[in-house]
């Protein structure tokens, strides 16, 4: 399959990261459910487009006209936040046929559990059939400052150039919150959960195509189609830094991942080879990932300069020693300056 | 040489960490020199004892009566902050003969430079002769909340249980500042520079003896008497966690250390053996050191429980996976719980 042009990729993903209209399934007329919290967060962070609550019978939710299905909404919808029970998701998609571009499915109870595997397969079959792309299920949403799309529980700022794709929702929030402490500015953070439909490879292609995304980071536990991700990653070589935090690097980490997103045990030698062959950068843990973001954000890459040598400026002696050690471990030579 | 009793060690070091009186050499009647900044910091942080500026002819400095030498001060002095030119330090000590317990010598120009090696030897000979213990030279002072002793440029809080000894002054401040961000509370931070006289082994003995010091950390570049430090460290085994950040772990780090504190290249296999034989904990870099402090501060060690197994509680799936990986790397087994 040949890769689509950057312009085509950008226009396909625009409704996801900067939707003009948003449908919200899983809001209640009387309770503060995740859908209500999402509506509140959209308003708080200045979302400019239309918001359409989807509810089987409520005429109004949080002061907005509600509709029984997306098909009843007066215009086609770019993005739906879907936080209804797993069993109701397929029905939601069927009713939104050809009227919705992206559905982000928060609901869990799919492929991450044994009894949900068949339901997830049905979700994917339905999505293809009705022409809707699905992000998730089992995720927590998207952070996109330019689209005023908030993560529930996260603050929003003016945004920057760091794009993140995470198979863990909780870590998406951690990356946002801890990144902010270090001054990391994000272009987008996509929580993608089980990635039953849209997978890491498509997000990678998008972030490579997006001129405002300068650095790309992943938290991954498993890959449905490793070959496609590898191809997308190889295609990235030298264009933008791609940093990968792989969850389940040890046997017991893999056991934990298996119960989290249903990841199968991966061969870590394979991952090491992928990293080596594509020029991606491995991150050891969350701090390491975020520090990579901070470092790349603070520095401009100058590919013309031969790697392997550096000059160290600094004022503290001990700091210079520790930095020299760290460069030494990376095989970068700090030569003494000539007098 | 048999080790002194804990009580004797504590009483010997009390004048250093909680001095009743302080002499300050290197303050000016007209300029804001380091001595003046130290006096200002002592007052700001509520130092309760007497402060005696030492100056060849000024009668008064910063509103305090100044004295030509420590011998002229009306009472013996516990601690002197010495920030005069290297050539003047020996003269200062001679004049303070038997009237001063500890002199912390900020001045550089001693053993860390080729031309200062002989001067440092003279400093040590003099200190022994006149009965004064010297901390430094080439350091930045002490942080001791209970003694209201500040580090220049550092804030002060109520203190806690982390004791630190650093051969780098700048890193002492970094440890204080970055530790505070993570909520680390310090019992004391001793910047010891070239440690010409009082060395890391004596500080280790003191911090082991001090019941309020719960965790001990070192930043070390070189050891004058490695055998004594090793003995002190072996003596610590199991009593308190001792974390060591060794600067100059790589060849080029050693080059940097050589020009910082005059450290000779150390054999890192020797360090690895010391760590293994004493149960000390190696830290890779400054973050690692401070995170060890935060972890030990937050947890109580229960030595009765066999190591090697742990139970992980948490709410985020991705966090659990990353934590499982980290435990896996440390050889700690996270067994699945029985139903």
UniProtKB/TrEMBL annotation, chains A, B:
Pfam families: CoA_binding_2, Succ_CoA_lig. SMART domains: CoA_binding. InterPro entries: CoA-bd (IPR003781), NAD(P)-bd_dom_sf (IPR036291), Succ_CoA_lig_flav_dom (IPR032875), Succinyl-CoA_synth-like (IPR016102). SUPFAM superfamilies: NAD(P)-binding Rossmann-fold domains (SSF51735), Succinyl-CoA synthetase domains (SSF52210). Residues 16-110 form the CoA-binding domain. This is CoA-binding domain-containing protein. It comes from marine metagenome. The lineage of its organism: unclassified sequences, metagenomes, ecological metagenomes.
């Amino acid at each position: 399959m040949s890769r689509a042009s950057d312009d085509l990729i950008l226009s396909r993903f625009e409704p996801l990261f900067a939707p003009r209209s948003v449908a919200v399934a899983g809001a209640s007329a009387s309770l503060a459910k995740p859908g209500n919290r999402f509506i509140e967060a959209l308003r708080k962070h200045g979302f400019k487009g239309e918001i359409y609550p989807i509810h089987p019978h409520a005429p109004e939710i949080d002061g907005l006209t509600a509709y029984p299905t997306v098909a009843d909404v007066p215009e086609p919808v770019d993005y739906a936040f879907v936080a209804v029970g797993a069993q109701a998701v397929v029905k939601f998609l069927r009713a939104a046929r050809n009227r919705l571009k992206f559905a982000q499915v928060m609901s869990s109870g799919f492929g991450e559990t044994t009894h949900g595997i068949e339901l997830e397969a049905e979700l994917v079959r339905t999505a293809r059939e009705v022409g809707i792309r699905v992000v998730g299920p089992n995720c927590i949403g998207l952070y996109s400052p330019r689209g005023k799309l908030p993560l529930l529980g996260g603050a929003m700022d003016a945004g920057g150039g760091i794009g993140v794709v995470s198979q863990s929702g909780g870590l998406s929030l951690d990356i946002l919150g801890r990144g902010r402490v270090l001054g990391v500015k994000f272009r987008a953070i996509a929580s993608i959960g089980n990635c039953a439909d849209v997978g890491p490879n498509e997000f990678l292609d998008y972030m490579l195509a997006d001129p405002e995304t300068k650095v790309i980071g992943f938290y991954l536990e498993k890959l449905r189609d490793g070959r496609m991700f590898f191809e997308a990653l190889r295609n990235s070589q030298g264009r933008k830094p791609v940093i990968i935090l792989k969850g389940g690097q040890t046997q017991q980490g893999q056991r934990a991942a298996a119960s989290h997103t249903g990841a199968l045990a991966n061969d870590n030698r394979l991952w090491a080879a992928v990293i080596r062959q594509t020029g991606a950068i491995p991150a050891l843990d969350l701090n390491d990932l975020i520090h990579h973001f901070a470092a790349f954000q603070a520095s401009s890459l100058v590919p013309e300069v031969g790697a392997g040598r550096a000059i160290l400026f600094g004022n503290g002696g001990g700091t210079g020693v520790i930095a020299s050690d760290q460069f030494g471990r990376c095989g970068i030579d700090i030569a003494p300056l000539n007098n």
